[in-house]
Amino acid sequence: MRALLWVLLLGSPALAQLCDQPFAPARPGWEWQYRVTGERPGAYSIHKTSITESSFVQVRQSASGKEETTYRCTPEGIAPVDFGTQGGGRVEAGAQPVSYDLKVVKVTGVAVPDYDRWAVGGSWKLVLEVQGSGQQGPLRFNISGTLETTYRVVAQETVTTPAGRFVAYRLQTTFATRLRAQAGPLSLPFNFESQGTSWYAENVGLVKSIQKTREGENITELVALRKGG
């Protein structure tokens, strides 16, 4: 019994730290505040709650409302396991907008890897296999496919945001959408890619990102990190 207790005591800190990664801290009371400039300007904050040894909930608060996403923590890193309140949406497509509702059915890889992977030249990938439904006017259809994000660490450099100066790793990201809509005998592919750059600082997390899409460019910057609790 004493030996078992000793093993549990030794193991507990390591397990607790799975969700509290240096480049994606999960601390009660911490709040990250960001501003967005560019094609879709705005502001939002992020905090993490329901933190356990193997998961946490990330809460994103903006003027449009609150979005919650659950993340899984493993020795390999951190990955989302659902869209939370972000799975549904609406896309303008000509005269009739498209509404959709997607669910994650399988997760491969991680969004934030363990500490040892953070080095110039390092890379990793996150693949979300999704299924759901959509509607455009009277037409209803099923949706299936993958959302794949590839991350590559290209440099370590100093970056400045309204929150201060940070020594950060610069990541190049590629986001690839490979979806197919099926309505009876009709099958239509929805494939596109977007590129991005992001900077992550140790013991802070994301401090800046630049996302490029067909509509334009959005720049996200850390304004403040509140360490309450």
Automatic annotation (TrEMBL):
First and last residue of the signal peptide: 1-16
One Pfam family recorded for the sequence: DUF3108_like
Keyword flag Signal: yes
Keywords of the record: Signal
Domain DUF3108: 152-216
InterPro entries listed in its UniProt record: DUF3108-like (IPR049279)
The protein, known as: DUF3108 domain-containing protein
